Amino acid sequence: MPYMGNNMAEPRSILILYGSQSGNSEELAIQAGKMSSQSGLKPTVKAMDEIEVTELLTQQRVLVCCSTWGDGEQPDNAEDLWEAANSGAIENLDGVNFSVLALGDTSYDLFCESGKEWDRWFQSKGAIRVHERVDCDVDFEEPAGLWMAAVIPKMAAIEDVLVETTPPEENQQEIVVVNPEAPPLKKSEKSQWSAKNPYTSHLDQNYVLNGEGSGKETRHIVFNLGSSGLEYKAGDALGVIPVAPPDLVEDLLTASGFDGSEVVETHMGEMELRQALTSAFEIHRLSKKWVRGLGELLSTPEEVSIRIVSRTRSSTSDGTVLFEWEGTGVEDDIPIDYSEIGSATDPSVDLWNDLDQDDSKLEDYIWSRDYIDAMNDFGHVVSTPQQLVDGMDRLKPRLYSIASSPDHEPGTVHLTVGIVRYNHHDRDRTGLATGFLADRCDVGDSEIGIFMSPTRSFILPEDRSTDIIMVGPGTGIAPFRAYLQQRDIEGATGRNWLFFGDWTEEGEYYYKEEMDDWKARGVLTKHDLAWSRDGKEKVYVQHLMNKNGEEIWKWIEGGAYFYVCGDKSRMAKDVHKTLISICSEHGNMSDEEAHDYVENRMMKSEKRYLRDVY
Ligand SMILES: Cc1cc2nc3c(=O)[nH]c(=O)nc-3n(C[C@H](O)[C@H](O)[C@H](O)COP(=O)(O)OP(=O)(O)OC[C@H]3O[C@@H](n4cnc5c(N)ncnc54)[C@H](O)[C@@H]3O)c2cc1C
Ligand SMILES: Cc1cc2nc3c(=O)[nH]c(=O)nc-3n(C[C@H](O)[C@H](O)[C@H](O)COP(=O)(O)O)c2cc1C
């Protein structure tokens, strides 16, 4: 039965929740906690995955700091709470005062969507919005600071109302008050380099890791940090700002009939069209919004009325005139035997109607096409440079898990990058960032904008004697190379077990020599390799986990951390299921208990099942 109403709130208490993937919202929540205690409140700062949704019923003051990930999605540590919030478990939050700080990036279509969702949800449950939601772009410090300065005094001014209702059973959790002694996070401690103000780096190395004959192209790419002052730790990711291929820009200008010097308005201000197509918009793939917008340009064809004014029929053999007719100009004066030829339709209008009416067709259409393909299909429908760029996706940075430890590779950042190449409609194409890195970033020369994306969760255990199990097939190996370098240089005594795999041993055994060396020196305690195309049967990492189930369980029972990195859509899901079944089988648990053990105990309470999946 849904719980109704509040209130069991501790006097002066305020709950500050954060949904955060790379730590920004978490940092701000901690800062808000500090400010709250300075204002005489008793703050509890918690990640969204540290509470049950029913705990909200016992609150009188709630602040939410939440970022948006993926394509307008909740960050990983907010997903479960969001699901629970929408499960009907809570009917109303009368008496709860709230405000939301939403973090995002205006480059994304669904700007600050998760924060907006929380804001709407609290309102829909009857909670009182004490201060308007603030949506922050990547330079979030200032607006976030203003939000705190405004909302915290309002929260502090709210009188405690202690109305007894039924407490939500065993879900009470210990209230953790943010340590008022904790040092405030100063802006100066953050790097000056960000997605909007990237550091211009150059490459020290850029080479293919694959063996001869491999069907893949995976590169080891090393960035020089120069005098940037950029710092990182094993587990962090690097942001890379790509630019479009110059030949694609020129081809698009030719196809659209512009010379590139025309000035257009963009989200980054006014600039020449050539510059906008190069660095402000993603021109290598169509956006849905742009295709939908064509409707307006296509749907206003001039209405043409045709009147027959004369008609002659001649013999095809000798040219003799068989019939001759001349009209008088009167409406119904038509030649004898005349019949309607029917209405002619424009195929591009038909195509557009088809796409507009069926979202899956539109998805299919944009999947393999860019703007040049669209010009081929729709003709010269775009008549101004502004129409060309309006509705295109804004160019976004790409993140890469760092494959090095700063202590092992000082002054540089190493990446393991899988290059995206494909051919559609007889043209070779690449992913935006991977094509840029592979084809146009030369060692020493090219200037590449980068910034750090630090993690607060995907980290090595503090206690160096803790064992770790790492599952990272394909480019998922990247952070584990960093971990192994770090554990090696620190002389960590905990055991290290790596599950790696890809298509073939010959073609895709990345960093084999380093792995052999770590094995020989006892750094890599156990190493299991899954090759899906080497034998008759496809072998994946989860199959090897299953084979080693008993031993994996022993490590886990002994406190080992369990890490997964790489493909989100399939691999991470299969590994998750396999881990649960191992715990069930070897830990003698029911399916339900094993789910609880993995998803609540390991993942949420003990935070030793950590994922970096994309
Ligand atoms: C936290 C994080 C860490 C990451 N770490 C790594 C890493 O260590 N190494 C790594 O390589 N990547 C990593 N990625 C992924 C990386 O950020 C990029 O998404 C990836 O490199 C592709 O970028 P791109 O610009 O080249 O491709 P995009 O231009 O973004 O295009 C990629 C898209 O192309 C589409 N596509 C692919 N094949 C085809 C095809 N045949 N036909 C049509 N469309 C197709 C797919 O929809 C795919 O989503 C990470 C991502 C995140 C979020
Ligand atoms: C892969 C990726 C996807 C993102 N998706 C969105 C999005 O859809 N909408 C948005 O407003 N911001 C998006 N962002 C921006 C983040 O919300 C922003 O960087 C935020 O500051 C991260 O805060 P956090 O560290 O608390 O997670 C995305 C960032 C990355 C790296």
Features:
614 residues, alpha/beta, Rossmann fold, Elongation Factor Tu (Ef-tu), domain 3, NADPH-cytochrome p450 Reductase, Chain A, domain 3, 5 domains, 6-stranded antiparallel sheet, 19 helices, globular, disordered N terminus, binds flavin-adenine dinucleotide, binds flavin mononucleotide
Any overview of this molecule?
There is one protein chain. The protein starts with a strand and ends with a strand. Residues 1-6 and 163-189 have low confidence and may be disordered. The chain contains 19 helices and 25 strands. Strand 2 (13-19), helix 1 and strand 3 (42-47) form a beta-alpha-beta unit. The chain is 32% helix and 21% strand. It is an alpha/beta fold and 614 residues long. The chain binds flavin-adenine dinucleotide (FAD) and flavin mononucleotide. Flavin mononucleotide is lined by residues 20-25, 67-72, 75, 103-105, 108, 110-113, 138, 399. Flavin mononucleotide (FMN) is lined by residues 20-25, 67-72, 75, 103-105, 108, 110-113, 138, 399.
Terminal Cα span = 37 Å
**Structural class given helices, strands, pairing?**
alpha/beta
Number of domains: 5
The assembly state of the depicted protein chains is single chain
What CATH architecture of the largest domain do you see? 3-Layer(aba) Sandwich
Q: Please give the share of residues in helix.
A: 25-40%
The count of helical stretches stands at 19
Topology diagram in text:
Layout: E1 3-4, E2 13-19, H1 24-38, E3 42-47, E4 61-67, H2 76-85, E5 90-92, E6 97-103, H3 113-124, E7 128-129, E8 134-136, H4 141-156, E9 199-208, E10 218-224, E11 237-241, H5 246-256, E12 263-266, E13 269-272, H6 273-279, H7 288-298, E14 310-314, E15 321-326, H8 347-357, H9 359-367, H10 371-378, H11 385-389, E16 398-401, E17 412-418, E18 421-424, E19 427-430, H12 432-440, E20 448-453, E21 468-471, H13 478-490, E22 496-502, H14 505-508, H15 512-520, E23 526-531, H16 541-547, H17 549-557, E24 561-566, H18 571-586, H19 591-605, E25 609-613
Parallel strand pairs: 1-5, 2-3, 2-4, 4-6, 6-7, 6-8, 21-22, 21-24, 22-23, 24-25
Antiparallel strand pairs: 9-10, 9-20, 10-17, 11-16, 11-20, 12-13, 14-15, 18-19
Bound molecules: flavin-adenine dinucleotide (FAD) and flavin mononucleotide.
